[in-house]
Amino acid sequence: MSLYKIRVSFTSLFVVLGLLTFIGFTPSFKSFADTAPLSDRAKGLDANGNGLVDRDEARGPLDANFDEMDCDKNGGLDGAEIPAFFQGTGCPKKEETVAKKKNAAKPAKDSKARKKKSRGGRPPQTVKLEEVIFTRTNETFKVVGRVMALQNGPLAARVRGAIEQINVNVGDRVKKGDVLVKLAQSSLQAGRKRIAAQVSRYDTMLKNSERELARMKKLSKSAAYSRARFEDQEGLVAERKAQYLEFRAALEQSLIEIQNTRIRAPFDAVVLEKHVEKGGYVNVGARVLTLSNDKALEVEADIPSFQVFSMKKDTTARIISDLGKVYSAKVRAIIPNENVRTRTRPVRLSVDFGSDAAKYADNQSVTVELPMTTGNELLLVNKDAVLKRANGNIVFVVKGDNATMKSVRLGRGIGNKFHVLKGLKAGDLVVVRGNERLGAGGRIKVAK
Q: Are residues 267 and 338 in the same domain?
């Protein structure tokens, strides 16, 4: 190509550019240096090799969201705009800087028009707001509990012997002091008589020794008095007295054993089981009957450990029967014994079933309704305001017409709200609708 032809080509190029500028069109010559490089996957879509994914090259979500992803509105997506959209971080800062430089180079009238637009050229996002509140919560939770008899257990024999008589059957109601079982006592009576005779014998021997000691004491001033014999007699009296007291105690013990051959009800109860029959033989401590006091009842429930920390003695609760009847109750005790499998702790609740007590059985299931909190005021935020990100939970706090991303630390959920541990304060306005499209924040418009 000759030098003349090159000069003509450049002259024609400048003429065309001048005409385009005259009619108001400014071409964009964006070099690869001004754009972030595409990822290996995105490069597969760059058919013309210009370092951008053009509109006609976009596929799938890139095509569906092209206008929103194209932050600098240059008709192509670069390596920064694509990941920024999918990560929800908004338009790249580099593109904002380029846009600012372009705006600064334009007339003042055009600059004012662009200030009304949101970051990256996006219009304000329409959102709904809700206030962070500091309030007292009365939320409850329910667990399955069981009715427990306060007095329940086996009745044991206190002496050994043969079963002579059983006065009750399973299901019978008994009163405190009623004789339920009789053991044979003939051998015990014979033993009592033998011990009584020993008591009488040593009582007589003690009295004789005491009289002899008194006589020696009167002779203390005569020539027939012997100090050695007097001291021996004192020892004999002490020995006779100890022997008498020993057999006296044995007599009392035999009388107690005879009384224990009559097994009595220790409290008002219902007979649940019979463990012996007439003619059988029992040793000391053997189970004879099982009794249960169905009038003195309470409820036991296994409570998750994390709920126990907010619970204390006398906490008010409700007991709900299978028929829907409700009874008031109070926490009597929190048992410090955790189940390693279920991570629960037993809690005992005092409840007055009144005249309905007879309708309930030991181990019958009931529903226990307990307060989830201690009634203290808590800072709460709507669950819809919280978004999960890789580095934790975030919310968008609104001031004026701008939404700012803020990290928060949350506690447990309470209904449709979360307990806020850190990051917000009462009165903050947060976005609850439209926050998923705010990216890293920006201008917003409140929906009416």
A: no
